[in-house]
Structures are given as C-alpha cells and as structure tokens.
C-alpha cells in the first residue's frame, strides 16, 4: 500500500467509474479519504437504507390490519395473521436471489448505480401497495398483487444492504472500518423505529376506525416522498474508490457468481459466514426487535401504544451500542463480540420473554361508563392489563443489546472476508440467507409454533408453556450457529483492502 501519496478530499470519482489507466483511480488509497467525505458517504448511504427498511417493516407491523383488507377474511384472526406473515416472509425468501442478481451488477458495473436502482424498486413497490384495491373489490387479484410487490421488495432489499455496506467500507480507513460500517447497522433498527412512529402517529391522529378502513395506506404512500428525497441525495454520490481503482486497472470480475461460489476458497468463506455468523445473527435480530413487538401485542395483549413505548424506548437506549461494539471490534476483533451476542441470545431469550409475560400483569376488572340502547348511562365491567412498563422496557433493552453485539461488527467482518472484485456478491448472499431466510421467518415460525402449542390438550407441557414455544426456533438456531462459528470462524480485522491479497483469509 502506497503510504507516500498526498491526501485528497475527493475520496471518489464523480459520474461513472474512471477509464482504465487513469492515474487518479490507480493511485487512490482508502486510508487517505477525509473524515468529512466519509461522513457524507455514510449519511447518503444510511438515509436510503433506512427508507428501504422502513418500507419493508410497515407491512409486517400492519399485518393484523391489512390482512383482512387485502387477503380476505376466513373468520379466524389467527389464519389471517399467519397468511399475512407468510407473505411477509416471502419477501425474505427472495432476498438471497436479489443479493446474487444485484451483487453481480454491483461487482461488474459499480456500487453507486446498483443501490440507486434497488432504492427505486423498493420505494415504488411500497408506494403501489398503498394503492391496491381491497379484496372485496378485486378479489384474488389483491393478494396476488401484494405478493408480487413483496417479492420485488425482497429482491431490491437483497441488493441494498450489500451495496451500502460495501460502499461505506471501501471509503473507510482500515483501522476504523468496524466503527464506520456500524452506522449502516443502525439503519435496520432506525427503519423499524420510523415505521412504528409513522403508524402510531397516523393511527392516533385519524382514529382507529378510519385507520383500519383506509388510513393504513398512508404509511405506504408516504414512502414515495421519502424515496424521492433519498434518491436525490444518493444521486450526488461518487463511485466507490476501491471499485474505481479495480476497474481502472482492469481487475473487476467478469463472472462474480462463478468466482464467489465455484472457487473453493471463496465458497468455504461464504458457507462459514452463513452458518457461523449471519444465520444466528438473523434470528437474534428478528427475535429481539420484531418478534418481541409482535409478542407484546398478540400474545400478551398489550395496548398498541404501551407495546410501542416499550420497544421504542429500548431501541433508543440500545442503538448507540451498535457503534460501540463496531468500534470495539476494531480493537479486539469481530468474532469475540459476534459470538457473545449469539450466546447471550441463545441463553437468555426465553427467560427474558418469561419476564415480559410476568411484568405484563394479569387481566383485572375495571368499571367504566357506557350507554345502553335507550341512551341511558350504565356501568360496564371490562378486563384490562396493568403492565409494568419500566421493567418490560429494561428486559426489551437486554434483547436489543444482544442484537447490537451480534449485528454491530458483522458488516466489517463480511467486507474483510472477500476481495474487492467479488465483495458485493460474496457478502450479500450469506447475509441475506442468514437474515432473510433464517431470520425473516422468525415471526411466522414462532407464531405458528405458539398457536400449535396452544391447541394441545390441557395439562400438557406444550400447552402450559405455549406462549414461549415459538422461541425454541431462534434459540436453537443461535446455539447451532455459535458452535459452528466458534469452531470455524477466523477473527479478521483491519484488513488492508487496497492490497492484492485482501480478503484472502486462509
């Protein structure tokens, strides 16, 4: 690596990648990029990624409401929720295909233009979802359109994360890569937080009846404005300096798929990163954030506002730890922190959910005034929860803390495993299989296991602890991943990405 080059503020190249042989592209060093340029890159990349996660999560957050509208009602709310969650999960299944498709484009054409394309596809699909007529009006066409749009979203999201992560990492100094890439790791949590905030605000502003009838469409339609703003910001970005250098030297891959998955050394790294890191990280993430929110509403029957307060406060308090653990990984290594997050998730998830149920409080009878058919005020006895929100928030914070440990350093870990010419493709596939398939189906599988356990005969073990039956899936997956990661993962950090052998971890 040339240490005698003068420092430049540009840090990248405007427009398309430079023509092969240009001196600026060949001489660029990612360790010479100015701090101001890195923050511009992080901001532009993060804004778009937050919007894409927002788009993805509003569907899952509104599953119980949009299910009867767009999928029709069978008369059983459980069937409706499971059907909607299955379509939600379908978007995760195609994420690996999006990773392969857009990863190939990103490794051949460039990082910038690829995740501009993913942003437009994701935002367009979300906006159109808000315009779909109800099942009552167009029949089976409604769920078919929704499913197709979810598949498009999954494909786009499959290309988004790899692009944003690679782009930021290739601008970052070698000794601070964990720190800077950890800001991209915040975006998934920020997107979930934003989706909840928009839904709650809209719901409370217009009233429950209006929101269920047509107001649920507003969060989807709002995505159109957010995507336009994000596209404008991203459009000003320059191509990644490392990719521009590789292209100028004629060292980009002509077949990223073959080099990523046929090459035995690279294929082994892809499999280790999947089964030793991202698989467990995915289930810890979706259990600690998304399923915890669903559990509080659907199983514990918490009021929407109470459940949202618990989760949002926990997210706000825990979010800085993404950066803390990302930065710590620059100093002590990625593997130790990721493995600790997986182990904590495996050991403490069920006890924490048990505590959430205990602190949710029993149903108590309360008396409220109501009006009978003649208009006369009469007392009515209703049942309501009296949850202890503070201890529930603390417990939820612990769940999210495990997420920050497993997720904060993982972007830097994946980036440093693979060489520049196939980095976009190679890191995207294990990430999106681990998060999309194993993690994305946590809500569906956990809910299905819970309902199956609840249907068992009285007095059986599964019936008694049916509320927690769904947690067996993420706990077992996290534990398996921890064993594999401990045995096979190499603890790489601060790899010199500009060198020819970067990413060749033996």
TrEMBL record:
It is found in: Cell membrane. Its main location: membrane. Keywords: Cell membrane, Membrane, Transmembrane, Transmembrane helix, Transport. The chain crosses the membrane at residues 56-75, 81-102, 114-132, 138-158, 179-202, 214-233, 269-287, 307-325, 337-356, 389-415, 436-455, 467-488. The keyword Transport applies. Residues 41-493 form the Major facilitator superfamily (MFS) profile domain. The keyword Transport applies. SUPFAM superfamilies: MFS general substrate transporter (SSF103473). It is a multi-pass membrane protein. Gene3D superfamilies: MFS general substrate transporter like domains. InterPro entries: MFS_dom, MFS_sugar_transport-like, MFS_trans_sf, Sugar_transporter_CS. Pfam families: Sugar_tr (PF00083). PANTHER family: MAJOR FACILITATOR SUPERFAMILY TRANSPORTER, SHIKIMATE TRANSPORTER. This is MFS transporter. It comes from Hymenobacter canadensis.
